[in-house]
Amino acid sequence: MEELRIGHGWDVHRFTKERPLILCGVNIPHAHGLLGHSDADAPVHALIDALLGALALGDIGTFYPDTDPAYKGADSMQLLEKTLQMTPFPQWEIINIDLNIITQKPKMLPHIPAMKENLAKVLSLDLSRISIKAKTNEKLGYIGNGEALESSAVVLLRKKVC
Ligand code: MG
Hints:
Blueprint: E1 4-17, E2 21-23, E3 26-28, E4 32-34, H1 42-54, H2 60-63, H3 76-85, E5 92-102, H4 112-123, E6 130-135, H5 141-144, E7 148-159
Parallel strand pairs: 5-6
Antiparallel strand pairs: 1-4, 1-7, 2-3, 5-7
Helix pairs in contact: 1-3, 3-4
The chain binds magnesium ion (MG).
The site of magnesium ion has 5 residues, from strand 1 and helix 1.
């Protein structure tokens, strides 16, 4: 019988001045970027957590601790690539991923095609299997007042038949 696994990830980063805004590896022009030890690519962090969660391997902090200088300013797309090379990921294939990005500003829609292209490349996945949705927080709370950006991810994996 085929084995399927589902994983869910979530992340939040605070907006700050003098940082680039990098989401799914795309540098998005904005007055603020996200604060973090790495490049603070929240949707990619949520996706890594979803992948690790699907196989009950722990979370992103287990593998890429924010106390480790090796990950200072790290490119999260590279961390995603590294994660998929880790045992036992080569025995699994991704069926689809579904990401949410929740932020009041800037508008995400113009950047979503480039984000999907970046993920398709790293995940070796057809674009039709990658969903990225953007929402505001209806001006409510810390997302709504522009303090932070949140992201969540769901991934479905299937064990490869040898
Ligand atoms: Mg993070």
